[in-house]
Amino acid sequence: xxxxxxxxxxxxxxxxxxxxxxxxxxxxxxxxxxxxxxxxxxxxxxxxxxxxxxxxxxxxxxxxxxxxxxxxxxxxxxxxxxxxxxxxxxxxxxxxxxxxxxxxxxxxxxxxxxxxxxxxxxxxxxxxxxxxxxxxxxxxxxxxxxxxxxxxxxxxxxxxxxxxxxxxxxxxxxxxxxxxxxxxxxxxxxxxxxxxxxxxxxxxxxxxxxxxxxxxxxxxxxxxxxxxxxxxxxxxxxxxxxxxxxxxxxxxxxxxxxxxxxxxxxxxxxxxxxxxxxxxxxxxxxxxxxxxxxxxxxxxxxxxxx
Length: 306
What we know:
The protein has helices spanning 74-77, 192-195, 206-213, 230-242, 287-296, and strands spanning 6-8, 13-15, 18-21, 24-25, 28-33, 39-45, 48-52, 66-68, 88-89, 92-93, 96-102, 105-112, 118-124, 131-138, 143-148, 154-162, 169-177, 182-189, 220-228, 251-255, 277-281, 301-305. The strands form 4 sheets. The protein has a 13-stranded mixed beta sheet with strand order 8-11-12-13-14-15-16-17-18-19-20-21-22, covered by helices on one side. A 4-stranded mixed beta sheet has the order 1-5-6-7, with no helix packed on it. By secondary structure, the chain is mainly beta. 29% of the residues are buried.
């Protein structure tokens, strides 16, 4: 139960043992105030409380108590985004779930670890009940998710997991630019396009899933950063070349180039009609590949970072 209303009980009415929002049976999360800023949270379906609420921030983690930290939240004090401001409660470092509210509507969920610092957090839109930012890490599964829709220009989503048995990394991240309908940043590592394990995200993001699953039709932005598996890059480039996906690219930063067979592709004006600069990290590219690119770079500037 993720993308739904999260309300204090004071905004609802209880009639004949069921909870209502105005004249409709309530479905969502309900918070009850307890003494000393403490809370109880439950899932409600069709007006009936079904079970205690476990936040996506908290999965696999313990939480002795839950508090309403509105007015004294550590994240409010972290104006520079350093991530090291500790949460205090009753004069001591706090560990557990912390929530903040805007006129009784939950706008933030935070899990605080032993040293009082934020481990996981979600920020919610109070009108549409959708997330506009979250960072979730699950050590027991060696996985994590992140999402940000705080910019008017773009949205980002990422998922990563390391397999305990093989130590193999599975990773995908994407930066989608709304206005241009282009991709500004893309990471594809491991078997992620087949496994689709990013769907395990505890907060559903159907628009992002649809975007990723239509990767064949990506159009890349004027400035794009690509980090692609060496054993996948040749196949993906073949698909994107056929789709004319690189027509707007002026500057490209790329990793995984050793897996690309035909480096002359960057010199084809019908494919990279706007390419002015190709950026590489020296330690991530075989020397012979760099030498090949130097021969092919008639139409663009080749920049090698050390």
